[in-house]
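User: Transposase, Streptacidiphilus monticola:
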Amino acid sequence: MNPQQHDERTRIREAIDRLLAGTPARSDGALTVVALAAEAEVHRMAILRRHPDLKNEFYERVRQEKHQTPESEKRLRETVIRLKKTISNQRRELEELRRITTQLTLANAVLAEELRTAQGRGPGPDNVIPLSRPSR
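Assistant: Predicted structure for Transposase:
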């Protein structure tokens, strides 16, 4: 680890302590990675890419010390709930479409049979050609 990364890690840890203590110096005090990055004066992606362990430590401490669920986790849970509802609705819609397709197929068969009967051709497909008997 180079000195710059060590300095970043130190600033991030100090920022975590300030945020959890409720004494932010450079951010709005929200318990989010964005506020943590502002508090530590590092780019948000530095936390997400170079120091994911500190991000995880921050969220774990938020859960333990503040007894709160991190905002990102709340949003993910809401998204999961919304997507499960969407999947359920799509399954119901798919079953309804399958039922309608079956009914339309049966109705089409009945109408085709009625048309053949009305044209006097009788039952059977129209692409069948009867074979004549050979002459003797």
